[in-house]
Amino acid sequence: MINFNPNLPSLSPPLGDALRHKIDFQTPSPNGSTQPASDFSDTIRAVGDYISKVDQNQQASEMSIADLVSGKNEDIVSVVAEFAKADMSFKLLVGVRNKLIEAYRQTMNMPL
Predict the structure, then answer these.
(1) Which of 38, 45, 13, 41 is nearest to 23 (CA)?
(2) Secondary structure letter of residue 72 according to DSSP
(3) Residue 76, domain extent
(4) Which of 30, 38, 55, 94 lies 20 to 30 Å from 45 when distance is taken between CA atoms?
(5) How many helices (H) and strands (E) does the chain have?
(6) Among candidates 100, 80, 88, which has minimal Cα distance to 40?
(7) DSSP code of 24?
(8) Which one has a higher pLDDT value, 76 or 40?
(9) Higher-confidence residue: 63 or 48?
């Protein structure tokens, strides 16, 4: 299980902000009925966008490590910060993936 400390500043754009309004499954309408708030494909598209951001963070982390090893960069603090940013965004992505798989399994086990 992934534990996040809410007191730490955000290291990467959180996926929750990108999906917060897309995962709200029911939106009350003025007449009192509920309607789906968004399309599932929009949610998947937002996850796809976040995957590309995670990939960019991983590549930036690898480049900063390579620069440190080659001697181009001597600031180890920035390298550790890049690595932590990439690590945190990847852990968040894995957590979202696990939640989506769990939701899929629950949906498939629903009786018709």
Answers:
(1) 38
(2) S
(3) 40-108
(4) 30
(5) 3, 2
(6) 100
(7) -
(8) 76
(9) 63
Q: For residue 55, which phi and psi values (nearest 5 degrees)?
A: -60, -40
The residue whose two tokens read 């754009």 is 13
- Contacts of residue 95, defined as CB under 8 A and 6 or more positions apart, other chains included, come to 2
Q: Are 58 and 90 in contact (CB under 8 A)?
A: yes
Beta strands in 1-112 (DSSP E): 26-28, 34-36
pLDDT band at 12 (very low <50, low <70, confident <90, very high): very low
Q: Tell whether 64 is covered by a domain.
A: yes
Residue with tokens 């959180």, as numbered in its chain: 14
21, two tokens: 């309004």
Q: Judge whether 34 lies within some domain.
A: no
